[in-house]
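Possible race condition, two jobs.
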Amino acid sequence: MRRIRSILTALAAGLCLLAPAASAQLGGPERYAQSELISERTSAAPGETVFLALKMVMQPGWHVYWRNAGDAGLPPQLILKDTSNVPAEALGEFLWPLAHVLPVVEGEIMDYGYDDEVVFALPLTVPSDAVGEVRIEATADYLICEAVCVPETQDVSLVLAVGEPAADVRSGDLISAWISKVPAPFPGEARIDDAAAPWTLSLAKAGGFPEGARLRFFPFEHEISHPAAQPQREGPEGASLSLTPDRAGKVGEVLAGVVRVDAPGAEPVGYEIRATRGGVLAGTADRAVADAVVPEAPAALGLQGLLALAGFALLGGLILNLMPCVLPVLSMKALGMVSAASSGHAGELKSHGLWYTGGVLVSFAALGGAILAVREATGFATLGFQLQHAPTVAVLALIMFAVGLWLMGFFELGTSIQNTGSGLASRGGALGAFFTGVLAAVVGAPCVGPFLGAALGAVMSQPAPGVIAVFLAMGFGMALPFLILSFVPGLHRLLPKPGKWMETLKQAFAFPMFLTAAWLLSVLAGLAGAGAVGWTLAGATTLAFAVWVARGGGMIRRGAALAALAIGFGLPAVQANVPAGPAPGDVAAEDYAEDAWSPEKVEALLAEGRPVFVDFTASWCANCQVNKLTTLNTKRVRDAFEDANVAFLAADFTRKDPVIAQELKRRGRAGVPMYLWYPAGESEPQILPELLSQELVIGLAVGG
């Protein structure tokens, strides 16, 4: 079990890093964007100001970011090389075209950016003493994202003759078209009323906004919550938006940003605003506007990313064959294949394999459909943050305990279903093979979760076909060994024969389940306190009582057992929903770190001239605990930090914390662990690998 869990941990931890590589191996591009430097002129006079532009063409489904990326991401930048023959001050800043929203996690994480193609114009002032030619050599540095994010750089260059001005008509037209998409100064008055939350941004504009127009505000900084809805009101003089302030957000002298206006039948336009503080402008908030703008749906996962994730799911399906809950059915299938092989009819053996595969695939497709139904009913379905919800953790601990009791043989799980399946599977021919596949998938369902996490978490927000594709890939992985055995008959001799050893192995697997339940109780303690743990232990006792009562048979005993099951699962979940214990962010840092993390704390420590190491962690994160045990909490690392005066901070993400979530997304990370190293005097950190070593951390401390 430990080996299997190690494999799965490595798969989950490496998914975001391996997906781009897997795409390349499948024939994907070396880059996910192609960049070039273009100019509106082929020749320019000394002292003249002309427009250059960085043109970027993205692969389908990929995007880059606006000047304010939002909750995550980094904006592109053009870094001038020393080999250029113009000074850095000759180049101006990017003119940022109007962006659109990029929802990452609906209602929680929102970005701003561009997809398909974007052109960033920037002015170049030709030196007054320039002769011959102006040579621009630079590096385009950007973060580009789909389901994963990839930092890319690309060398770009441009040579502009110095002399009589001459236009490059094609490039000039393209640059002009994109400059026209840059938000214009707002032709009116903007005011922000921050006296109470939510704030009100009012916009007075002569003639108002077009009928049916929907507005959204994109801030230049991070004063507001990016994913929050912005309810709109309007009046004869303009419109207003309700803005949810960020946790630490406050308005300075002005609130600056862009208002995007989407009107029916028209191209979106943007206005750059600088809203001064004050009361709501008259005539801008008379009535509410129904059906406010709905954020754009996430882009569908590209074919290359989907293939990479399906590959991980297929591997998970292969590993699923090793689980004890599946082995008895597989052994039954193996005996059927042995009989078919002994008949000497290769076609019959192949038919068995194909029909068995069909039964598995149908079952996994049905399971995927059930997940999609939940998503449709609730609007949200993901495996990403379930361990931050105390009632869920309590129920999971009880399920692990119940599975352990089942493996030990205290009760039979799904006896009627298994007996029915066994009867159908015992039949000969295609129907028997098909229902053997169905039975294998049914009894294997309790083991699906641990193997599905990485692939399902990446595609759960995607359209239904992508989700079903991942489930089918997992089912195909589960069926693949027998499919291979069906077409290579001699391989069936490698299968172990069924026997008493399977029951012993099944019982042995109960103990890892009990240990998993104990670990979940420790997570629960951090989320909801010792009281919730006590109630969950009482629930486990009630479950054991239900099993004991049900053994006697009879209607009364069965009714008592069902009541005990309801109480055993229900009461701990209800009790765990009562907040207790330390508040979010109040990690017990004294156990292994100097203090709890906050952006302000980092700034203060850097101002003192100290290097800073930040551990973004959670009690439910296995990698985090391993890194603490093997590296961060060791005497060697502690001594090295003390000698180098390193400030060691901990950011506890055991519970949901929007400030920590924002920092994770800002650094392009979907979760913990994340490790940041701030060298002394550096305001931007290095992001360290997810698996640490003492040598790496000590080397950073010694190097300052």
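Job #2 (started ~2 s after job #1):
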Amino acid sequence: MLSFPRRPLRVGLLREAARRARGPRARIAGAALALSLAVSPGVAFAQASALLDEGKALMKKGKLAEACPKIEESYRLSPRSATLLALATCHEKQGKLATAWSEFIDLSAAARKEGNKRLEADAKARGARLELRLPRLTVNVPRAAAVEGLEVTLDGAPVDSASWGQARPIDPGEHKVSASAPGRKTWEASVSIKRGERKAVAVPALAKDGSAAPEPAPAEEAPAKEAAAAATAAPDKGAAGVGKGAAGAGKGAAGEGKGAAGGGKGAAGSGKGAAGKGAAGAEKGAAAPEQAAAGPEEGAQPEEPSAAEEPEASPGASPKHAGTFVLEVGAAGGALIGLIDSGSFGDLSTYSYSYNILPEGELIAPCNDEVCHASFEPAIGPFAGGQAFVGVALSERLHLGARVLGGYRFGGGYLAVGGPSASLRFGRLWLGLTGLVGAVGQDAKVTGVKGEIPSELVDRNYGRTEVDVNAREGSLPETALVETLAFGGSVEVSLVLADLPSSSWTSGALLLSAWPTFMKGLDGFVIAAPVGLGYRFY
């Protein structure tokens, strides 16, 4: 009886002591916590700035292997756009093109949120330029190899089944692809890929592993069996042991966790709710197996997020290449060689020629463009002009369309040809073919004019097919413009001097090009070697 009055006193003393202890000490602890929270961002920012400076200094010295990790740690401590720009630049110099490309896309999105349009445009352009040089690897999984539980990894990172068969950007270098599945032997393969290269690797059907342990029963069967056994073994305690999640995500298993039957309370549904007492518990316990049967559907693991839920790259991060309009314009100049040895230089009706028609008689015939023609010396000279290509990009590497090439030959003459054209890209080099048809003219020295002898009179003229016209001395022009229709083709060899892709109409590349051209005229040949500087919009 004497102990009862002392208990309230002891409790009161303890409460008072706790109150006194919480007074000044609590205030000091709270102040220290607030100070640490206020100081820690400043400390992190200072550390991030120091790491960024160190990384930039190392990057200038070319020590990229040391610079990139420091800049990456700086960005982790204080994620800023300036740091992300330095990190993407470092990875680009290091040759990790896919990593840098992804970081430029993130930088573009961050700059857009900050309202920094200049940085956003720069990040888009640099990311788009990298996209053209990205290696791409395709991991193919044939239907025969897609066994249950198959897991494919690339450099240790899982490759989602939705991306099987799709080309994915990857850094240049060595990479390892592996595949594994329950009860199967693991398969591995190494693949080396270069800048701009596209490769594919196929996962074979995995061989069965006889030494492997037997595959476990499906997850939905074991909990259901345990739940049914628990409900049968303890009906009087109202053990509703399973509930909706018995066969699903692992919650509400019979006799486990918060839903265990005990103290007259049965575990209901997900394993957290009370199933009641006494008779009510028994009734709910009896209903448990039915709920457990429905468990696999309601408690099943959530499906993988659909492609629509995945974050998208910032819009306009790179230009579209396939299916877009392509226009190239540029200046061209070089040498034009005319080997047109026969033709007309205007009105020849003022000239005449004679040939034998009888054993002792001649016929004086007038000249015209059909029976008389002039002969010329070869003409070689420089020319200047331009070229244009109009077409469509069937892919990033293949452009189809039409090209025209024309120019003026110094000293007299011209070139005006065009036709269908195709260009294929190999890294920084474009190679193409163009079929050409058009007119060519050259101002060349006249060596004479000849008239044709009818074929039936060739024998009477000692086998000659033509004779010189009767022209007074000095009546022939010294030079004349001779023209002809020519057919042929040219080969395109273009070097990309600057690749400037963007989301605006100025997206394109600056090219240094040469088009060696060979054409056959109606009378003679034409050879041209134009070289030009142009810009291809795409």
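Confidence is low (pLDDT under 50) at residues 1-18, 218-222, 227-322.
Logs attached separately.
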